[in-house]
From TrEMBL, chains A, B, C, D:
Domain Acyl-CoA dehydrogenase C-terminal: 245-363
Domain Acyl-CoA dehydrogenase/oxidase N-terminal: 7-87
Name listed for the protein in its UniProt record: Dibenzothiophene monooxygenase
EC number: 1.14.14.21
Compartment annotation: Cytoplasm
Known pathway: Sulfur metabolism; dibenzothiophene degradation
Keywords: Flavoprotein, FMN, Monooxygenase, Nucleotide-binding, Oxidoreductase
Organism ancestry: Bacteria, Bacillati, Actinomycetota, Actinomycetes, Micromonosporales
Pfam family, one: Acyl-CoA_dh_M
Length: 388, 388, 388, 388
């Protein structure tokens, strides 16, 4: 699949780039970008071929996400959420399903969701909450069983794609047992209210609004068919909660270098030694972050959730976030005041790039975990805060 | 005067801060801030007491500018332009006037401009041009003598306060002799057209629009009364073209630390070691930049334009610009995603702070000049580009 | 005094520099440097004029120490220990003595020590111990009262000047009451054994060997004449335990720039843009560190031990240590491989400079304390470890 | 071969590490390390199997060099010179030989040199000269034809392994035609004089002494059998002149992290947040440098000398050099003063690590070349200095 999907991403990136300034300015959702993604079949990127998708590996996803982000980081960031949902659903093998006690009908329901994705539906993630952040163990959204399914009630924040997705992956806590956290796939429609709170420094086109839920869902929308799987899945697939961001910010860093080179060449400033030094160091740092991302992704495919895989995931997250921010800041400085005008790609990229280190796990948290591991410890056990 | 002006600045800063988010969002000029400045008498800050002003030193200016910038960097940046004009005019001593061949009527005209400032007028600077940047030697705006004065024609860019100032300091080239560059004080009114081009990453409230001139001015508006003084004055008072920015960015850096501390304390996050390390290093760097600014300012007062004074001016510009950008980026990272929402002070400060290194002389240029000087060379002679 | 002492320091620095390579290579004590210091009367720098000394302020000390360090950082570091002892003794005013309950005979004893210094004696500090580091609260060296004085027993490490000083300030714990820590001035001679353990990366000429004590001292050698004053004095005069190092490393950073400039000019490499950028940024950073050191010193003189004074002390320590290390590393890179030959000043300065951040309080600790203070906390209360 | 050679390297590294402190202290050559390398057959690493060697790829070399450097960077650096000679000789294919006009007897002579290496001989490189540095175009060592071969006369510097190698690759200029630079393989023995000048900050065990030549060599020792090939080969195989260093410094960086972790765990300091942050960031940076090195090496094997390959080579050189220096400095700061005692691995690694950026092409030069390439230029054409 790689070739096809990667070519599609490369073909779409310039279109995304051409629309990026407008969506950034208005904070509007890149609806056309998502139409393009649908038409290119990319909503099925992580869906197994048997269900009509491309069956991409995580490494293939990462390469696609980086290319999309060279066009518009915000689009790639929302797409990353859909890829996370479909990727995690698709990664539940029969063995794992059996080990977790997932009933057959839940697997069938899962297949229906994935088929729909391959046919053009896309899903957002409604996990974070004000106060709790992205920590599953701190959620206040609750659910309870009803006669014919489940009722969910609560409020989510930072829900990228809110109001545009066809469905939402919602994490909630059982009202019967506070320690049980489950995930549901809630179809867009009645019972969901988008509160347009997203108006941020960067990644402005993600529509990461608040989402209020007071909604009934059918029984089969409990993912896995068994309550309490949310934390288990987080432990098994941390890459989808951490590393998938990293691929986006590698693309943002690369886009900043490209934009600076174009700007400087257009003004005949390529001969300035200080400018060359800035571009050279940015190029090396970005190339390094890209390789670390690729290595992390390769290992995710080989041994998801392993301790060594997780170290690479944290390295990728740390380096992509810090590199994007530093590179964009340096490229803007190389390009000079004329590149700070709104509508200039570097003006947007400087803001977008700052967000990478802030997504969970933050750069400071990744550095702490990596340090613990380098000292022979275990971040799960020795960290100062619960990882999820 | 210090006490009075500095107290006024400290009193006004919180008011400016309260209005900053709105002006940043809309890119609107902080009209009320300037009314406050007028009422506090601060337009007369650099005007000699004999002409009704406060007669501040450059060091006193720097302290005032830093305080104003803790409220709103954009307001302080525009105020800095007025201070530059009045400060440079006020610094022309009788000895200097005689040495430059400034006629008595020009000194009288100068006094009228300064008196007007003390009474509440303020001036903007219209120097930069698209293509030429801030280099006096590259300007394309021209002037020619008329029967009763001068006619100026051309276009300026990055004219902070355009459309709001009472007068503009305009640099132009003689149409009779390309090598002659002079400066005029042009009163707001007919013949000046503001093109609202300013819509930038940071310092959005400065209204640094383009200004088109096709305007006749009276004979006495040629500053100094003698043509060709612009480059001479630039050589004599480089601090007004370089260091005055630095004081603003010291205030921006300090504001970022203050905002981060308030944000983190409100969320009970002050105990996180990574957060404390970020604030501690930011505090030390900002304190250092502030001292370097104060030292540069003190030397400007003692020996303006001296080689050693200029080194301090470049150090102040370099450190204030790089420190503000690095501190704001780190404080935003310490505060986390919730501080990236528009309207949050750190969101604005992160953008404002990036602009300091880009004002001329840029950080890279200052580093080059300082390096030449450290190696025993002379930036005027050994630099790779003309300084003005 | 400033003028005299500062001139003397400037006169001596080149002599120290000429001897520095040899002492660095052999790890030998700069005996001639100390003879020069004695002859210049600098052992009396901190001694009140009434007792025959120069009565220097802390700020004057700092300026002298920086100049000496431009010659040889190791010599300045040992001198700093003597200045700490005499400075702290001299700073005990009659009011403080009364408040602490210091008897008259102790003041007389103190005066004898200071007079001896003014006449050419110098003192080292024997505080740190293996395991305890520099924490007074963790010492294992003990003392007990004898019929005619005190008996001290224990082992010290990092005792700069061991084997060369005329006396040693020794901190010890009472064998009768573990919570009581006192300080003694022990004359060189029997009962003291120097174990030559000092063979380190940098500051090799300090002879910071281990010192084993099993020694009887007269009654009047208990400083202050009252047991248990050590921690009180540490609280009152933290600058002598922290900031005095900083002045040395400012001098080391400046020496590195000077050496790089000389090296590059001799090879006609001053025109390389990358070299100029390195020197320019190093110059600005070093100038900033020097100002912060001067400001901290000024405040120490005005309000020793105050919370705001202490913040400046930590800023000075943090910036001097990090700046020296970064500047020396960059200057060596600017100068290139030929400057890595042993005997080249930059080769030594690169090693010496790394030590500044490691002296207590380390750079990381200073950053933590400054962060706590910036967040409105109190390092004494909120720090993760006891400050002394 | 990878497995065998890599396993051998891993087996030898701890032995090298155990001897490293002594050779560093004395500046003595690690004779036993080289005996171990010979016995493990590693002198034949780059020799084609047909000639008795292991036939390693460049990527395999890089992995081996990194492992050796985790034991002792100095040993790895000298080994790198031998690998460069044998690797470059072995890389001359029949097609290339024909294109360059290499006669059959020269290929036979080449094969004899490689066979000797496989049987236990090793070669050093004598290229750099005082004044010229490593620039082939600036050499002053000359050669002239004699009746039965060549006579070489001149002086080399930084000749790693001088006095210990079995042969030396010597670059020299034709006395008949200054523009012709050729390379000879000179056997150790009469006519070569080692002047023990190497006494440096780091990599002290390399014996990179001066080598004076006044020596006759047989006709077949002109490499390639044709004069004037030196610059051609430099253009074709820049990786052997640049990237091979990088692999060594990746190993040095990793060794510093390992040493810091061991030191901190032994002192129960692994729980300090500042320490963990330092180790975490060092780990990520080193992992990135290692991947960039591996990618560069892979591309060298696929398309040696290609423009894109060269970019990766410069990235590897830049990142390995800067990462090693920064990581070692940070690890020493994490470990604290006790790690600065001579004999402690971190004390040596801090000095060794600083050398990586200084080897040609220096970090600043690599950054310049990468910047030119990122801006669409060609470093050969647009650089400010000749590349060789």
């Amino acid at each position: 699949m790689t070739v096809h999907a990667l070519e599609a991403a490369r073909r779409l990136a310039p279109r995304f780039a051409a629309r990026a300034a407008e969506h950034d300015r208005d904070g509007s959702f890149p609806v056309e970008d998502f139409r393009d993604l649908r038409e290119a079949g990319l909503f099925g990127l992580m869906v197994p071929p048997a269900l009509g998708g491309m069956g991409a590996t995580f490494a293939e996803y990462a390469a696609v996400a980086t290319e999309l982000a060279r066009g518009n980081g915000a689009t790639a960031l929302v797409f990353n959420m859909h890829a996370s949902v479909t990727g995690a659903l698709g990664a539940v093998t029969e063995e794992l399903a059996e080990a977790l006690g997932v009933p057959d009908e839940a697997l069938a329901a899962r297949d229906r969701l994935l088929k729909a994705a391959a046919q053009g539906s896309w899903y957002a993630v409604a996990m974070s909450e004000r106060g709790a952040g992205a920590r599953l163990s701190q959620l206040s959204t609750v659910y309870e069983a009803t006669d014919d399914g489940w009722h969910l009630k609560g409020s989510k924040t930072f829900c990228s794609g809110a109001g545009h997705a066809d469905g939402y992956l919602v994490a909630a806590r059982s009202s019967a047992d506070q320690s049980v956290v489950s995930q549901f796939l809630v179809t867009a429609g009645d019972g969901l209210t988008v509160e347009p709170t997203w108006d941020a420094l960067g990644m402005r086109a993600t529509s990461s609004h608040d989402l209020h839920l007071d909604v009934a869902v059918p029984a089969d929308r409990l993912l896995g068919g068994v309550e309490g799987l949310a934390l288990v899945v987080a432990q098994l697939m941390p890459h989808w909660l951490v590393a998938s961001y990293a691929a986006v910010y590698v693309g943002v860093a690369r886009a900043a270098i490209d934009a600076a080179a174009e700007h400087l060449n257009a003004r005949n400033l390529a001969g300035l030694p200080a400018v060359r030094a800035r571009l050279g160091r940015a190029d090396a740092a970005t190339a390094a972050a890209e390789l670390v991302m690729a290595e992390a992704a390769r290992r995710v495919d080989d041994a998801p959730g392993d301790a060594e895989t997780n170290r690479w995931v944290w390295r990728a997250k740390l380096l992509a976030g810090t590199t994007a921010a530093e590179v964009a800041a340096s490229m803007l400085e190389a390009a000079g005041t004329s590149a700070t005008r709104r509508g200039h790609p570097l003006e947007r990229l400087y803001r977008d790039a700052r967000c990478g280190s802030l997504h969970p796990a933050t750069s400071d948290v990744c550095a702490d975990w990596l340090g613990i591991a380098a000292l022979g410890g275990d971040p799960d056990r020795d960290g100062s805060a619960p990882r999820w």
